[in-house]
C-alpha cells in the first residue's frame, strides 16, 4: 500500500478511533493523547501493515495495546516496593502529617496532661512512649513486669479521662 493510500484509509478511521479511545479512557484529554500515540505508531509502522487485511482492526489493536501498556505503567508507578526486613516501610503505617500551629497546641496540652500524672504511672508511660519494652522498663525501675504493664495501662486510662474532660466525650471503639 502506498503512503497516500494509507493516509486516506487512516483518515477514514479517525472518528471511530476517537470514539474507541474515549471508551477506553473515559476522559477526553486522555483520549486525544491515546489517539495521537496510536496515529504516530501506525504511521511509523505502516510498512508492517499487510495489504488486504482489516486496517480498522489493526489500528484498534495498536490503540488497545498502548492503553494496556499505559495502564500497567500507572499501576506499577503506584506500587511500593519494600525490600527491607519484615517489610518495615509497608508495615510501619507511617503517614506524613502537616505540622500546623493547631497541632502544636494540642501536643503542648497533651504534654501538660502527661505532666499532671502521678510519677509512678508517668515515668513507665513515658519510657514506653519513648520505645522501651515492658521488660526493659521493669529492669530499669526495679519493678515486676506486671506492675509496669498495670501502670502504663492506668496512665493511658487517666490520660483518656483527662482528654474526655477537656474535649468532651470520646467515642468508644
The rounded distance between the terminal residues' Cα atoms is 71 Å
Number of strands: 0
> If helices are DSSP runs of H or I spanning 4 or more residues, what is the number of helices?
9
The CATH homologous superfamily of the largest domain is termed RNA polymerase sigma factor, region 2, helix turn helix motif
Q: What is the overall silhouette?
A: rod-shaped
Beta-strand proportion: under 5%
Rg is 32 Å
Structural class: mainly alpha
**What pattern of helices and strands is seen along the backbone?**
HHHHHHHHH
Give a short account of the largest sheet.
none
Low-confidence stretches are none
CATH architecture of the largest domain: Orthogonal Bundle
Quickly name the level 1 CATH class of the largest domain: Mainly Alpha
Write down the CATH topology of the largest domain: Rna Polymerase Sigma Factor, Chain: A
How many distinct domains?
2
Mean pLDDT, all residues: 84
Helix content: over 70%
Describe this structure in words.
This protein has helices at residues 3-12, 14-25, 28-44, 55-77, 88-92, 101-115, 119-129, 134-141, 145-167. It has 173 residues and is an all-alpha fold. Helix 2 crosses helix 3 and helix 2 runs parallel beside helix 4. The model has no long low-confidence stretch (mean pLDDT 84).
Question: Layout of helices and strands, plus pairs?
Answer:
Elements: H1 3-12, H2 14-25, H3 28-44, H4 55-77, H5 88-92, H6 101-115, H7 119-129, H8 134-141, H9 145-167
Helix pairs in contact: 2-3, 2-4, 3-4, 7-9, 8-9
Amino acid at each position: 500500500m502506498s503512503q497516500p493510500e494509507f493516509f486516506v484509509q487512516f483518515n477514514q478511521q479517525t472518528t471511530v478511533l476517537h470514539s474507541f479511545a474515549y471508551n477506553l479512557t473515559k476522559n477526553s484529554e486522555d483520549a486525544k493523547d491515546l489517539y495521537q500515540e496510536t496515529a504516530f505508531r501506525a504511521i511509523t509502522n505502516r510498512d508492517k501493515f499487510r495489504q488486504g487485511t482489516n486496517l480498522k482492526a489493526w489500528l484498534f489493536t495498536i490503540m488497545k495495546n498502548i492503553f494496556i501498556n499505559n495502564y500497567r505503567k500507572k499501576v506499577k508507578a503506584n506500587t511500593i516496593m519494600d525490600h527491607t526486613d519484615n517489610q518495615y516501610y509497608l508495615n510501619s503505617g507511617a503517614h506524613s502529617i502537616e505540622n500546623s500551629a493547631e497541632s502544636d497546641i494540642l501536643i503542648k496540652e497533651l504534654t501538660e496532661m502527661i505532666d499532671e500524672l502521678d510519677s509512678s504511672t508517668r515515668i513507665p508511660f513515658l519510657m514506653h512512649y519513648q520505645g522501651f519494652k515492658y521488660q526493659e522498663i521493669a529492669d530499669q525501675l526495679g519493678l515486676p513486669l506486671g506492675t509496669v504493664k498495670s501502670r502504663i495501662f492506668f496512665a493511658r486510662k487517666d490520660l483518656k479521662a483527662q482528654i474526655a474532660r477537656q474535649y468532651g466525650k470520646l467515642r468508644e471503639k
